[in-house]
């Protein structure tokens, strides 16, 4: 699997950032957040308490505003408007730009993000007027085909870079958790001839993965196990586990559950690879990651995480991050092993 010859970052970033403007508009028009923080700085918890918001999306919003240079976190951990925000986004300023955003108040995307802030759930949760978030929709074969194709086309950019960034020469078997079309497994086993792989994926995506593996002529080296990664027992004979763009779909509790299942199933000397877009440890950027995290928080139960957050969960399980390497499209891969 060869990497592209041109850099498609702009193409993918434009899509990843599509919800960020809606989040900014919600903060300005519906919450008047900058005026509130100018009057009384507080931390993320304080923002939640004061405005009746849920922590996961509020954390995402504050990270976005920090990355955009509109908020700053002081030494006491309090969020304050920057000079730019004070001049343009605080009531009473001579250059108050808030009216410029009023026309966006009823935009559907703005309403979606405001709903996420106030409920803590994806904008289209099962049982609401819409059919459900994408997790529920994945049970429909038509939706699953379309969504998996979207992840596969991005994976064709990411997978060769991931394979080049990891060292699996001493590994025997890779377990690709939530591996979609098997695009990452395919790239990694192609680079390491002594490695075989298993894709752990729910139905009906398992069918899509089997087809892609057959088309690549890798049936002898990659198998697919159809299972719910949260409820099913995991294979215990794989010495390397891969989470590629998986953790960001889930809230912290679910991420901890998945990592606990991984560490329990790994043999001695096994390692975990976590491939994702990562926030800075102080959660003030990078901007692309902050923008993408807004989209994730709107349509899934998750958001993006920092290496420090993931490292803390792993430390509780006796694992340590031993390496970090960039891949493509702003992503990185963490290599972890038992402490």
Write up this protein.
The protein has 339 residues and is an alpha/beta fold. Helix content is 45%, strand content 16%. The strands form two sheets. Strands 3, 4, 5, 6, 7, 8, 9 and 10 form an eight-stranded mixed beta sheet that branches. Helix 5 (55-67) runs antiparallel to helix 13 (287-299) and helix 9 packs parallel to helix 10 (183-191). The chain is elongated and about 70 Å long. 41% of the residues are buried. The mean pLDDT is 95.
Largest sheet: 8 strands, mixed
- Rg from C-alpha positions? 21 Å
Number of domains: 2
CATH architecture of the largest domain: 3-Layer(aba) Sandwich
Helicity, in percent?
A: 40-55%
User: Average pLDDT, to the nearest integer?
Assistant: 95
Order of helices and strands: HHHHHEEHHHHEHEHEEHEHEHEE
CATH C-level label of the largest domain: Alpha Beta
Could you name the ranges where pLDDT drops below 50 across 5 or more consecutive residues? none
**CATH topology of the largest domain, anyone?**
Rossmann fold
How much strand content do the residues show? 15-25%
Q: What is the rounded distance between the termini?
A: 33 Å
The coarse silhouette is elongated
CATH homologous superfamily title of the largest domain = Vaccinia Virus protein VP39
**Structural class of the helix and strand makeup?**
alpha/beta
Structure summary, number of beta strands: 10
Treating each run of at least 4 consecutive H or I residues as one helix, how many helices?
14
């Amino acid at each position: 699997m060869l990497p592209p010859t041109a850099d498609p970052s702009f193409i993918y970033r434009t899509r990843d950032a599509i919800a960020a403007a809606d989040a900014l508009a919600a903060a300005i028009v519906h919450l008047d957040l900058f005026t509130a923080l100018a009057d009384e700085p507080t931390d993320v918890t304080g923002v939640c308490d004061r405005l009746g918001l849920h922590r996961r999306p509020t954390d995402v919003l504050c990270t976005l505003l920090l990355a955009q240079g509109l908020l700053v976190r002081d030494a006491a951990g309090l969020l304050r408007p920057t000079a730019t925000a004070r001049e343009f986004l605080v009531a009473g300023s001579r250059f108050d730009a808030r009216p410029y955003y009023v026309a966006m108040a009823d935009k559907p995307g703005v309403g979606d993000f405001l709903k996420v802030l106030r409920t803590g759930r994806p904008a289209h949760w099962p049982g609401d007027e819409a059919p459900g978030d994408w997790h529920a929709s994945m049970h429909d074969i038509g939706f699953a085909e379309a969504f998996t194709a979207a992840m596969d086309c991005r994976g064709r950019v990411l997978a060769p870079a991931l394979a080049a960034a990891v060292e699996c020469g001493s590994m025997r078997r890779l377990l690709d958790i939530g591996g979609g079309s098997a695009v990452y497994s395919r790239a990694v086993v192609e680079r390491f001839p002594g490695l075989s792989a298993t894709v752990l994926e729910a139905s009906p995506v398992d069918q899509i993965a089997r087809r892609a593996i057959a088309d690549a002529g890798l049936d002898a080296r990659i198998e697919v196990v159809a299972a719910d990664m949260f409820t099913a027992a995991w294979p215990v004979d794989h010495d390397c586990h891969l989470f590629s763009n998986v953790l960001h779909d889930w809230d912290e509790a679910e991420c901890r559950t998945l990592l606990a299942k991984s560490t329990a199933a790994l043999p001695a000397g096994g390692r975990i690879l976590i491939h994702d877009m990562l926030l800075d440890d102080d959660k003030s950027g990078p901007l692309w990651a902050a923008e993408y995290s807004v989209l994730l928080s709107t349509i899934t139960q998750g958001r993006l995480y920092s290496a420090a957050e993931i490292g803390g969960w792993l430390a509780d399980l006796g694992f340590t991050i031993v390496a970090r390497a960039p891949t493509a499209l702003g992503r990185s891969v963490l290599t972890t092993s038992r402490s």
